[in-house]
Amino acid sequence: MAIPQEYIAELSRRTDIVELVRSYVQLKRAGRMERGLCPFHNEKTPSFYVYPDTASFYCFGCGTGGDAITFMKLIQNLDYVEAVKALAARAGMPMPDEDDAGAKLRGRVLAANRESARFFAAQLNSEDGRSARAYLRGRALSDGIIRRFGLGFAPDQNGALRSHLKSLGFAEPELVTAGLCKMNDRGSVYDAFRGRIIFPIIDLRGNVIAFGGRVMEGGWGAKYLNSSDTPVFKKSRGLFALNIARKSTSRRLILAEGYMDVISLHQAGFDTAVATLGTALTNEQAKLISDYADEVVICYDTDEAGQRATARAIDVFKNTPVKVRVLQLAGAKDPDEFIKTYGAQRFGQLLEGSGNTIEYALAQERRKHDLATPDGRAAYIRAALEVLADQAMPAEQDIYAGRVAEETDVAKAALLTQLDGVRKRLYRRREKEREKRALEQGAAAGINVPYTAGGDKALGVAFAEQQLMAAILRNPADTLPMAEAAVQPQQLISPEMAEAYTLLLQMGAAGEYIDLATAGAALPQKTTALLSRALALNHDTGFSREDVQMYIDRITEGHAAGANVAEMDAEEYKAWMAEKRRRKLGAAPEADP
Q1: Of 217, 312, 422, 548, which residue is the least packed, with the fewest Cβ within 10 Å?
Q2: CA dist., res. 298 & res. 61, Å (int)
Q3: pLDDT reading at 112 higher than 80
Q4: Kind of pairing between the strands at 152-154 and 196-202
Q5: pLDDT at position 436
Q6: Strands across the sheet with 252-256, in order?
Q7: Does domain 242-353 have CATH number 3.40.1360.10?
Q8: How far apart are CA 485 and CA 468, in angstroms?
């Protein structure tokens, strides 16, 4: 769908990017900017900024950036047109009435998924599904829970689903796009799921968006097989059974590891259980959980892999306001086995008594060390103090230091003194990491130039190119004519900046409104992110005509006023440019300290 530039410009004007981002991210004022933890990668120190004056955002940690439309695309896993529609709905703007090929394709994929779910359910209740029904009964699942989750069966014969869907008018390319079929090296199309119990994955609007398949005893292949990403499904951004769990009045979700655990929990009356979709917990999934819960109880398997996954999940949840507790199963490998062995009431008691992440981490360290020996107690104390310094608030540190003192028969006062040293050491380590990130966020960071352009020696030119693009976006009326008179797109050594400059020239010639949103509509995400970065680095810069002329000189000549600036790297060029600016303004150079 081709959306007119004037529509994008108006949508950009009507959208408050701070208000938009704040609906997904906790932001704090930082001067004229807003700052928070990035929703697109895991971080402990905020490096995500929103700039109201340029209606843009940028993360100095992962390099993600763009305008409001880009943010909506990434945060909601939408394509460009869907993101525009979502923002238009927020702004109360009707969409232009044009054909949307992307929407039609998504509609076809959803229709194919819906028919596939019906096919799998029918197969479960057919003669061919006898072994699958026996398997589910052996797992103690009732007919009611099977219907509630829409479970099905994929027959162990190639082409069964493909033939059925083709009879309904679906073409093979559509089935491959939907992930229902795959194509081998010879170009033959075959069913993606065969001989498996099928778990439909349903979104919050009730659409079947994907499937998970579990092999039965004696079957072949991986234990679980999940749909690949499609136009309607991204496995890193959804949760199994959230469509059911969100209907509960409880604001506590139970995060289990697999589909069968979730279904077993629901059957036992714990209707807020959800699971990830074949991946470790992602930031997007943690954010989704925080939308529907104030508290989450992690209930993963007790094996080593499950405990590693628990530790990763705890770390991911640090970026959310959700209160996290960890349920530690005893006498069973997973929730399904525990409920079958001890019953739902016992599980409920365990659930209510589950500890917080500090208690979980201390318990994990306790298991590693023999507290009956001096060396074991000393090692446990060191590990426990690291946990308290990293995770606990001051009041919690006092409480848990007392518990550690009782466990190890060491004076609490001595532990608190030692804890103070650990806390200071951790602070110094984090400060060094913060300094390192600050250096990496300097002018030369993130600038890439082709090897043939001169490598590091060309960084200064590439930096000038990004500065010129930022100046144009900030003040196109004055800056674009200056650049157009002196610089041709082919003179730019950065392919991304050359592409952006070409577009800006075209938009200027057509008299179109120029800002990051309108330009980003026609540029790849990588280029939009680079432009966002340039704007972020210059959020407090007022570009003068002299500044713009210096960028132009740097690009076109590679030298100025006899200085061999063609050999300068980006940092040297930045210092040279600052000195030249002082001289133009008649200021004396700063004295050496």
Answers
A1: 217
A2: 27
A3: yes
A4: antiparallel
A5: 54
A6: 273-275, 252-256, 295-299, 323-326, 355-356
A7: yes
A8: 13
Tell which CATH architecture fits domain 5-91. Answer: Alpha-Beta Complex (3.90)
CB-based contact 576:554 (threshold 8 Å)? no
pLDDT confidence of residue 298: 95
Q: Which residues contact 494 (CB under 8 A, 6 or more apart)?
A: 447, 448, 449, 462, 465, 466
Side chain identity, residue 317 = F
418 within 8 A of 389, measured Cβ to Cβ: no
> What confidence tier does 578 reach under pLDDT thresholds 50, 70, 90?
low
pLDDT tens per residue across span 336-351: 999 999 999 999 998 9
Task: Note whether 25 and 36 are within 8 A (CB).
Answer: yes
Q: CB of 471 within 8 A of CB of 543?
A: yes
Return the residue matching tokens 């689903």.
161
Beta bridge partners of 153: 197
Instruction: Specify the amino acid at residue 65.
Output: G
For residue 209, what pLDDT band results from cuts at 50, 70 and 90?
A: very high
User: For the chain, how many residues are written?
Assistant: 593
Q: Which class in CATH covers the domain with range 101-233?
A: alpha beta
Selection from 72, 67, 50 nearest residue 59 by Cα: 50
Q: Which residues contact 32 (CB under 8 A, 6 or more apart)?
A: 51, 52, 53, 539, 540
Span 222-251, average pLDDT: 90
**How many C-beta atoms lie closer than 10 Å to residue 36's C-beta?**
21
Q: Give the pair of three-digit tokens for residue 231.
A: 């136009």
Please say whether the beta carbons of 520 and 65 come within 8 A: no
Separation CA 317–CA 285 (nearest Å): 10
Dist CA 453 CA 460 (whole Å): 12
Which pLDDT tens digit goes with each residue over 23-49?
889 899 888 889 999 999 888 889 999
Task: List 226's β-bridge partners, or say none.
Answer: 212
Nearest residue to 311 (alpha-carbon basis) of 262, 277, 350, 361: 361
Give the CATH number of domain 451-584: 1.10.860
**How far apart, in whole angstroms, are the C-alpha atoms of residue 419 and residue 250?**
38
Q: What SS3 state is found at 331?
A: coil
CA–CA distance, 1 with 88 (Å, rounded to integer): 15
- Measured in whole angstroms, the distance separating CA 167 from the mean position of its chain's CA atoms is 39
Q: Tell me what pLDDT residue 56 has.
A: 93
H/E segment holding residue 355: strand 355-356
- Domain limits, the chain: 5-91, 101-233, 242-353, 363-440, 451-584
Would you say 496 and 532 are in contact if contact means Cβ atoms under 8 Å apart?
A: no
- The three-state DSSP-derived secondary structure of 202-240 is ECCCCCEEEEEEEECCCCCCCCEEECCCECCECHHHCCE
How many Cβ atoms from other residues are within 10 Å of residue 254's Cβ? 29
Asked if residues 566 and 457 have their Cβ atoms less than 8 Å apart, the reply is yes
CA distance 523 to 302: 47
